[in-house]
Every structure is written in structure tokens, then in C-alpha cells.
User: Fold this.
Amino acid sequence: MRKKTRKKTPVSPERLMQFGSAYAPPLIIGAAVNCKVFDTLEAGPKTLEQVGHATGASERGLRAIMNALVGLDLLKKNRQSEYTLTPESEAFLVRNKPGTLAGLFAMAGTHLVPDWLHLSEAVKTGVPPMAVNQEATGPKFFSVLVENIIPMSYPAAAALGQALKLGKTRRPVRVLDVAAGSGIWGIALTQQSPLVRVTAQDWAEMIPTTRRITQKFGVADRFSYIEGDVLTTDVGNNYDIATLGHILHTEGEDRSRKLLKKVFDAVKPGGTIAIGEWLVKDDRTGPLNGLIFAVNMLVHSERGDTFSFNEIKSWLQEVGFKKVRKLQAPGPSPLILATKP
Assistant:
């Protein structure tokens, strides 16, 4: 009898070809943000010439990026060659919108991509081209980044406050915002009750950024500040809530475990720790965003990484926290909550 042979599924290079130009979309979007293309089109349809007149950018350059944005479904173009925003770009790429990601794309070419160009060397050596988790170099990077990622953190922080029923509290609530950055985690909690007071800890050079943003949100009078390194600075104690908004991935495992012990000591019995992170599966097979972010940590930090829920759960239990659980919230991953007994 003849042996049956299975037909092999044809292999196409199409997916790899797409990867080959995957660097282009964020840089195109960033250029459009920096040239105020989306802001200009918010008022309504405009031709290429009209956008050029409003922005001062060259028609040649605008034609290239705006047609590419049509291909990316971030702009539409009608028969009169007028360009308009799509619902997606109108919601997230106009600078004055509350959920805007415009700032994040605007910094792609200046703050994010340049270090990624040294990825091969970082893989060989295990050393990043510049470690932004160090106090000597970090503030210059994070003072730009933290405000631009507010739209990523704010909805999750608001969901945290709702889950903890802060809107119904009748007693003062003390919050420790660890490595506060923009202060958005504490800001979102103060908005839910006038009884919430926040202590924001961060490097001395970051605190002016935190102060400015709390003033922008109108809650500066309910913030106090502690300057210094997260592990060596006295942050006080008797807090009801401690927030670690996307901090552990820059610290790495060893410093993260020490940090969780410090937070445990700072929280009162019955208090809650809330952690925002890019979580991955235990076997590191997904999700893709978390796996890519681990590479981002290789490029930008000395020990940074992404971790699984079970890893972080074990660290929390190791220092004494109980009732470790997930809270579904807007963001890259669920929040992790735990209680001090």
C-alpha cells in the first residue's frame, strides 16, 4: 500500500514582511501628533493644502503621512480629497481629549525607539544602553513619560477606588502612592471622596512633576510628599491603601520583594495594597504585550522584567499579605489586590 503523505500548509512571508515595517506606524502617528494633524482635523474635513496652511508643515510630508494614516484607518479621505478623523483617532489622538494617547506617540521617536536600537547589544550583555530606573538618569525620562501614560492608569485607578467603596467612606483614608510619578493613582482616589489624603513618594527631581499635575487636577491641597529612593526612604506607616502603579517591572524581582515587605510594614492591619502591572502567564507564553514589555525592560532597566500573577502573589504572601486577588479594571492587565491581616 502506498503511504499517504500529508500536504504541507504553504508558508507565506507576509507576516514577517509586516513585522519588517512594524516600526513605522508609531513613528508615523508620532509625526502626525507633533505636526498637529489630528488637532487640526478635529474642527472638520480639510484638504492637504488646508492642513499645510494650518500646521506649517510641508505638503509633501503631510501627503505621505496622512495617506499612510488612511491606510492605518486613523484618517478617512473623501472624493474631494478632504481628510477627516476616524472615531478612534478623534477619541485618542487629539491632544485635548481626556483619554488621549497623543503624548505617548509624540515621544516614541525621542524617548522610546532610540534605546531599542541597541537591543542586540543589550541581549548580548544583559545591560541596557541607559538604565532609566536609576535616580541619576531616570527623572529626565520619567518626567516626560508619566504624564503621557495618565490615560492608561487613570481608568484603573478610578476602578480601584470604586471597588474599595471610597465614595461611601465616612472616615479619613490615608493613601501611600509609591513611586508616584504623575500622582494619578492618588489623584483618582481623592476624586472619589474628600476624606482621602495621599502621601506621594518619589525621587526628589520627580516631585515637581507630581505637584504640577496634582494642581492641574485641583487636588494639590490633599497631597503631601516624601522625596527619596523607594527602598531607603522612610515612608511612614498606618496607611489604609498603598498603590504601586506599574512599579515592580522596573525594579526586578529582588527589589520588588523588598519593596513589598516595606509596603506591608507601612500599611495598617486591614489595609489594602493595589498593584498595577503587565502580567504574563507562568510559562511566559503570553500575552504578547506583556512579553514585549519584558524586552522593553531589558532595554530600559538593569533588572526589570514582567511577572505572572502567581509570582507576585507568592511574594505578597511571603511578606504577610492575605486574600491576594485580581480586580478586573481597564488597563493592560487586572489589578492585584491583597490585604494585611
